[in-house]
Amino acid sequence: MSVDLTSMIYTAEQVRDGEQDAAAQCDVSMAQLMQRAAQACLDVIQHKRAAPANLLILCGPGNNGGDGWVLARLAQQAGYRVQIAATEPRSELAKLAAQAWRDQGGTVIDLATLTAMHVESADVIIDAMLGNGLDRELSMLFIEAVDLINRRNSAGWVLSIDVPTGLNSDTGVAMPTAVKASCTVTMIALKTGLVTGAAATYCGELILADLGVSRAFFKTPPTLRAIESSLVSEHLHPRNKSAHKGDFGHVLIVGGGPGMSGAALLAGQAALRCGAGKVSIACHKESHLAIAAAQSELMVHAVDNDLSALLKRATVVVIGPGLGQSLWARALVEQVAQWQGAVAWDADALNSLAAQPIAKPAASVWLFTPHPGEAARLLNLSTSDVNANRLRALTQICQNFQAYTLLKGAGTLVKSPQQQDAWVCRRGSPALAVGGSGDVLSGVVGALLAQQTAEQIPIDEVLAIAAWLHAVAGEMAAQRGERGTLPSDLLGELRTLVNPHQGIKIGA
């Protein structure tokens, strides 16, 4: 059975516990699995660097090192010049593989004696030191080896086997440093730490080798599911020819405090471009003129502290873009918190809830879109605590506030308070690292929420689709350069992306 595996992502423990059973079900021994892993790596190397290139393979004590020992034999047989730097093997499979290398006349240097000269003379450097399951900081021996790899000259191409050494395979955190690979060939399944946190900095191109046991392993429910373009096209259908604006909801955006009219404007423009039937903005009187003049399709209302009339007309509410933290802002937060409907909370609205929590009405649906700093305030943690385990922080917010939550950042995560698994967005661009990007995202969320009933989109999938649209719009807008891309540049791209039925090619 063939399975598309890149959308299913697992913890290190799930892979460790499941791989032996999966191999047994497929009548594959662990030694054969190691042989297949090494062959998968050789296939990638042959595609990138032809023999007789110089290979330097760094082998650790466990089965990840065993993969490296087997790869050394296969690569030498394929015509490569191979040098190994290794620690003493400890696992039984690694010991057997190391002995097989020595039996065919292969030489080994101690990893502790590795120098910059060894690294600089290699055309390809293979990191087979630690791999999957690292849960503590690297020892000095491995820190020094990692630093030598990362200081290599630009000609040295680096392949990490399974997981770059030093990267926590569950959290995507460097412990405290990690190999910066050109390519990572990961075995059997993608691991959570390869798709979120700082993973993109270290993994390079990510290739999955299922080793022929996927049909058995993937009976295990994943921890994360990757958001794919198919989810967008599944839900964003062509509109009925007789449709009218009332079919697509009325988004009320509450924000735009003094000096912050742009945030509310961006959210409103994004909601319009993503198909909301009507969009109103409730803002401070000082921001009213600027917003109204900038986008004629927006209905802009200056409010003192009374939202009651606007709330009666709204389908969904987005609160936070440019809201600020004044008494005026708090009064609006308290009114929206009592509204019995779907509310997307962002920016200073989240900060206000963190400072003075308010219980969610049973009939309300809350969606949170924090960045790590806002998540930290919601959980009374530090930002580094949140980034140390993004999935754990996401889950805690869902539980504490009974809110569907989208945790921004590389490898954006989305979770429902009712479900065990979560979504991860593997798309995006550093071009989104600019003020105002989050305001665009909140407008996308609002527009999709407003159309949610018509399109029959589950709430967690609303957030998942919004994350994907925002990320891919960022990629498209950055094609002329990541630096200098503005959040407003995403608006035209969003219009293309929310109309997948029109056949405009947008990638996988």
Which keywords apply here?
Rossmann fold; UDP-N-acetylmuramoyl-L-alanine:D-glutamate ligase; NADP; 508 residues; ADP-dependent NAD(P)H-hydrate dehydratase activity; 12-stranded mixed β-sheet; EC 4.2.1.136; 16% strand; 7-stranded parallel β-sheet; metal-binding; 2 domains; ATP binding; 19 strands; 21 helices; alpha/beta
Descriptive account of the structure:
K(+) binds at residues 64, 127, 165. InterPro entries: Carbohydrate_kinase_pred_CS, CARKD, Nnr, Ribokinase-like, YjeF_N_dom, YjeF_N_dom_sf. Its cofactor is Mg(2+); K(+). This is Bifunctional NAD(P)H-hydrate repair enzyme. AMP binds at residues 408-412, 438. Helices cover 42% and strands 16% of the residues. The chain is α/β, with parallel strands linked by helices. The protein has 2 domains: 8-226, YjeF N-terminal domain (Rossmann fold), CATH 3.40.50.10260; 245-500, Ribokinase (UDP-N-acetylmuramoyl-L-alanine:D-glutamate ligase, 3-Layer(aba) Sandwich). Helix 18 (437-450) packs across helix 20. The strands form 2 sheets. It has a 12-stranded mixed beta sheet with strand order 8-1-10-19-18-17-16-15-14-11-12-13, with helices on both faces. It is built from 21 helices and 19 strands.
